[in-house]
Amino acid sequence: MSWKVSGIVVAALLAASPALAQSAFSTKSQARLFKNQTKLLDGRASEQYKNSVRLKPKPVYTPSKWGDGRFKGKYNGPYLAMARQAAALHGVPVDLFLKLVQQESGWNASAKSHKGALGLAQLMPETARVLRVDPLDPQQNLEGGARYLSQQYRKFGSWRLALAAYNAGPEAVTKYGGVPPYKETQNYVRVILGL
């Protein structure tokens, strides 16, 4: 009879062991185990990929709350036709250049920035000298601005980077390999492109 009782006890323990094991291995323990395993794997992955290069997909520009990239300014004065002509002459998208002038000077031909940039397209005196334009003459200023923007586009291959170079200087774009991390420049590019 003792064999029968022993057999029943063993059978009962075997049948109950999955339930006992499950309750013994609580949710808290599972969470702790998961956290520890994740930490271990993350550490191994970070060590393995420490010297690798991260690939960055090219940004896709879509219309947003900032607009669709078209010039919608209220300015309708004499410099508008000059700006359109200068943009067309140098292969710059007309709406892009009109937004640049709006952002740079608000169509004020006598505008002067705190850094010394002059006129409608806010050319720095040295840039104007290299371009051989008079920054105080509205037509020459616009022509110089469109030509300079076109040069930056040819150098960097995108209007986004050309605008960043126009605002922060081509050296900054080269140094950072893209739009520099300056809030002013990032906002400038976003507003003009309508992002």
Automatic annotation (TrEMBL):
Q: Which CDD domains match?
A: LT-like
Q: Does the keyword Signal apply?
A: yes
Q: Which domain of life is it from?
A: Bacteria
UniProt cross-references to InterPro entries, sorted A to Z? Lysozyme-like_dom_sf, Transglycosylase_SLT_dom_1
Its keywords, alphabetically, are:
Signal
The signal peptide stretch is 1-21
Q: Which residues form a coiled coil?
A: none
Q: Any idea where the Transglycosylase SLT domain is?
A: 83-187
A Pfam family annotated for this chain is SLT
Q: Per the similarity annotation, which family is this?
A: Belongs to the transglycosylase Slt family.
Name by which UniProt lists this protein? Transglycosylase SLT domain-containing protein
